Hints:
Elements lengths: L16 H11 L4 E5 L5 H10 L3 E5 L3 H8 L10 H9 L3 E4 L10 E4 L14 H13 L5 E4 L7 H11 L10 E4 L18 E5 L2 H12 L5 E4 L2 H31 L4 H8 L23 H11 L5 H29 L7 E5 L14 H11 L3 E5 L25 H5 L3 E4 L8 H7 L3 E3 L3 H4 L7 E3 L1
Parallel strand pairs: 1-2, 1-4, 2-3, 4-5, 5-6, 7-8, 9-10, 9-11, 11-12, 12-13
Antiparallel strand pairs: 6-7
Helix pairs in contact: 1-7, 5-6, 8-10, 8-11, 11-12
Amino acid sequence: MAETIVPQTSAAPGARPEILGLAEKIERREAMIGIIGLGYVGMPLALTAANAGFKVLGFDINGPRVAQLNRGESYLHHIASQRLRDAIGSGKLEATSDFARLSEPDAILICVPTPLTKQREPNLSYVVDTGRAIAAKLRPGQLVVLESTTYPGTTTQVLKPILEATGLKSGSDFLLAFSPEREDPGNSDFATATIPKVVGGDGEEALKIADALYAQLVVKTVPVSSPATAEAVKLTENIFRSVNIALMNELKLVYGAMGIDIWEVIEAAKTKPFGFMPFYPGPGLGGHCIPIDPFYLAWKAREHELSTRFIELAGEINTAMPHHVVDRLAEALDRKARMGLNGSSILVLGIAYKKNVDDTRESPALKLIELLEERGASVAFHDPFVATIPRTRKHAALAGRRSIPLDAQSVLSFAVVLIATDHDGVDYALIARHAKLIVDTRNICARSGLVGAHIVKA
């Protein structure tokens, strides 16, 4: 059971008997947990809850995904199918596309996407639609927790009115909370159960009950004073990363102009035992959180007539990185191969947004392909984790392209190998031996002890 610092509180005045009994059901692990959205956040959470002894009903609008999960077949590379089979075989986990069953769970955890619009404004359509689906079946005594990353105020200002339109009231008829997801796919050091969980409730009773639930699932809970505070915690974590990565990306450009290797600088700087935390430059930001979350806060700040110049500048720097990489590649082609980008063949190594995962959401590699082809290059890719590029909102035209084999002959056939993602298990020595030119955005060649005049860092 997780460590918790929540004091015991009495039930809210006028709370229904169903709410009074929910804590006991959670303590006895007799409560059913419903999880809406069975992707990179929802599926690991579902497995964690099932492993903790709860019966879990997972909801997803993707019918084939539901069928695959119920067959015990994982659609996420970093989650073994055996874990699914064990949970399903034990009777603890079931998936469904029937949202009419939302009345069955005692606690409903929402793990749906919160993307940006083309204008970089919050798109809460998935949260709103999910809220309406819950409201259609909401019953007294249920706990509803939003986990999707969003701006402060979403839980109480957007989700709560949808649920209360049923006539049921938060705090007395049902409970409402926010607890931000902290998944890091591919991280072998931390999993859902070993990452502390921040929890903010709409009232004391909601905080107590939501905290009691997560205390059964994770190593430690971190209660905070409100859902808005919990929402701000998540944004702060990701903005911290975005700003520091942007700093390293900017220093990469500055030091590069001076003939100084930014990666060597970082390695030396991180030997200081205090006052420095290493972050690394790259070809741009990817994933569903770090490229998006800063703009959620910037949008919300404008409502209060405040500007977030520092945060938005970091976003601009990171967004510009794919353009810098393409310019650096074109320059390397000109200087080392005496040829232009137009008409050149490029092999992009790595399509996932980070190493050792199959997640392509917001991946800078997709933007790199588009930029290269806009300038007349012919582009193919290899990724051991991504056999086919899935359909994405921003890069729909790339959907269906398939990874090509990586061997000496294929490497030799390209004018340039562009390393966009530094997956483990790739034969970088083979690439270094046979590639005519390598543009390395991750410093993986140097880290692998591979050097040569044909290897250029970008």
